[in-house]
Design brief:
This protein is an alpha/beta fold. It has one domain: Rossmann fold, CATH 3.40.50. The protein contains eleven helices and seven strands. Helix 7 links the parallel strand 2 and strand 3. The chain starts with a helix and ends in a 17-residue tail after the last helix. It binds thiamine diphosphate and magnesium ion. Thiamine diphosphate (TPP) binds next to strand 4.
Length: 331
Amino acid sequence: MAKTNAQKERDIPREKLLEMHRAMLDIRNFDNKVNRLVKKGMVPGMTHFSVGEEAASVGAIAAIKKGEDMITSNHRGHGQSIALGIDLNGMMAEIMGKATGTCKGKGGSMHIADLDGGNLGANGIVGGGMGMAIGAALTQKMKHTGKIVVCFFGDGAVNEGTFHETLNLASIWKLPVIFYSINNLYGISTPIKSVINIDYNYQRAAAYGIPGHFIEDGNDLLAVYNKFEEIVEYVREGNGPVLVEAITYRWLGHSTSDPGKYRTKEEVDEWKKKDPIARFRDYLIENKIASAKELDELNDVSQEAVEESVKFALSSPEPTLESAFEDIYAD
Ligand SMILES: Cc1ncc(C[n+]2csc(CCOP(=O)(O)OP(=O)(O)O)c2C)c(N)n1
Ligand SMILES: [Mg+2]
């Protein structure tokens, strides 16, 4: 794969490229590990994995200011949390319901939040993050912080009423928010094409008088990153919200309880050939940005960090019964 024009022009630092690769490795290694733990009965509740969709989250989050800008996320939010740099130990402990978890073990996989890191929270309610995102964006606008919010949701969320309400409000108030639909072609077993009468969801931006952007290959990390750099600049300059859609695919079931009868093995295999991590690895090697050995080592370090997080979670205490009544109201 040759260098893209955009990269040649801007010359993304090697450190940044490797940081993005590491984030994708962490997402895959972390989720594959959690999947194995679920099968052993070691994870309470339901989990939804980001395996196969890594580039769509990492490319977007690499374009915002970590520790300043904010995100909201959904039930499939592991990838976004990791891309934003959450502590893996705290996240694994949260998923295993331990007191040392990011949310003290009270949220679990679908409700991971990391306010210090800018993650305002994942949400088990489809479309549930949208109202929070525009509320946070309104705060940034009123306080002139210069910060922006990226609101992540799936293709299945676009027919929720809140999608219309929040895009409309954000557009008339020109809020600094990026609505980002990660289109993995299905909402559980429902193909997105069977529930919309247009080709793609980004086209709905026209209804709110805001720009709509399409990332046809959401498994191409640099395509996502380059597009987001452009969009982030536009939104930060005070031009109002944007709707973005990226096409990708989840390799695993909708959740850990999905028999997966609605798609064929051929379809899944076809998408595995478009593996975002393998493609970016080839790109780094072909362009002599890193050697195969260096990237293997990076993967080893990533796997060790995930193993470490499991040890941390397993050795952590359960939340106390009394703690169920803490953190309910703001002080
Ligand atoms: C308001 C609401 N309706 C239905 C559900 C059940 N549900 C959970 S995930 C999901 C599908 C979401 O699909 P999509 O937004 O495309 O995200 P994906 O799982 O594909 O990442 C549904 C219908 C829910 N959690 N909340
Ligand atoms: Mg979907």
